[in-house]
């Protein structure tokens, strides 16, 4: 029987915990991979994330208010009490995670409702411009300590241990060839032209993709004993199991047939609050064992 997370908790969503699709060390799953060898996600009997959860943002370095709004509007779009009428939407994308909960028939638990919590600004680089994993944990502790997920976001002039070589997390425009695809030309693989970022910011739009992936994994595998496939130390989770897939027709080096804004030429696949548009990753559908996209 599934368990749910009912007691007070703190999750620190660190920039160093996940290997994202654009990293050279990430597993690349092509259409052929999915066709010949379907992924079989396993539920490991641990709690899923439930109830009202605040997403606290710790901004380390220099970010303009307009940049911070791109991320906070994305989070607000996930579980907005006033859903976006335009479709496809961020809320519809997030609703796909409910399939994980439905499969295990979680009882006596509240639906997961995410909201923007505290935003902490550290514009003076209090720990310097080269951060270790230990210092990232220290920064994460500046957020709320109850029923919260704390997210540290670093500006492009900050070096973080392990970034670019093996992971991206949510790291602005640093190493864009690895961490900001499909908005930047990839370092490896097919060299298709990059798409135009929906909010006209390669770093922040790439950050949203990575944050979306991490949040989906956090909801369905918060303590490394929920839903995942592969080794616990490097699991494939709800979004990381579908690297590089954003719309139907995707193949290595091509994000898929994204929608295009007729005015700006920007690509997107989801509408958010305040008129926002975003590109969000495919999510693994545990009921069909396939990667599911919004469009």
Automatic annotation (TrEMBL):
Residues of the signal peptide: 1-25
Cellular component terms (Gene Ontology): apoplast
Top-rank taxon: Eukaryota
Any Pfam family matching the protein: Phi_1
UniProt-listed InterPro entries: EXORDIUM-like
Assigned keywords, A-Z: Apoplast, Secreted, Signal
Secreted is among the record's keywords: yes
Keyword Signal: yes
Subcellular location field: Secreted, Extracellular space, Apoplast
Residues passing through the membrane, by range: none
Family: Belongs to the EXORDIUM family.
Protein's name in the database: Uncharacterized protein
Organism: Salix brachista
């Amino acid at each position: 029987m599934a368990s749910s997370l009912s007691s007070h908790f703190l999750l620190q969503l660190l920039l160093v915990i996940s290997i994202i699709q654009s990293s050279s060390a990430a597993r690349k799953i092509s259409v052929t991979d999915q066709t010949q060898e379907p992924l079989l996600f396993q539920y490991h009997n641990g709690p899923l994330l439930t109830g009202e959860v605040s997403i606290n943002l710790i901004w380390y370095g220099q970010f303009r208010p307009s940049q911070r709004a791109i991320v906070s509007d994305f989070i607000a779009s996930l579980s907005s009490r006033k859903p976006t009428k335009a479709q496809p939407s961020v809320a519809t994308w997030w609703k796909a995670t409910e399939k994980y909960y439905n499969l295990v028939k979680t009882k006596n638990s509240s639906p997961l409702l995410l909201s923007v919590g505290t935003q902490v600004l550290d514009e003076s680089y209090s720990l310097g411009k080269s951060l270790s994993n230990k210092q990232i944990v220290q920064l994460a502790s500046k957020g709320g300590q109850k029923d919260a997920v704390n997210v540290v976001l670093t500006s492009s002039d900050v070096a973080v241990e392990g970034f670019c070589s093996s992971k991206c997390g949510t790291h602005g425009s640093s190493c864009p060839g690895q961490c900001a695809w499909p908005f930047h030309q990839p370092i490896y693989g097919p060299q298709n032209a990059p798409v135009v970022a929906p909010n006209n910011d390669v770093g922040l739009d790439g950050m949203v993709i990575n944050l979306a992936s991490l949040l989906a994994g956090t909801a369905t595998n918060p303590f490394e004993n929920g839903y995942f496939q592969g080794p616990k130390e490097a699991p494939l989770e709800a979004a990381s199991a579908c690297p590089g897939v954003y719309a139907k027709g995707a193949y290595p080096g091509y994000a898929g047939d994204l929608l295009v804004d007729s005015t700006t030429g920007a690509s997107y696949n989801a509408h958010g609050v305040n008129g926002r548009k975003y590109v969000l990753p495919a999510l693994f559908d545990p009921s069909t064992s396939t990667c599911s996209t919004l469009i």
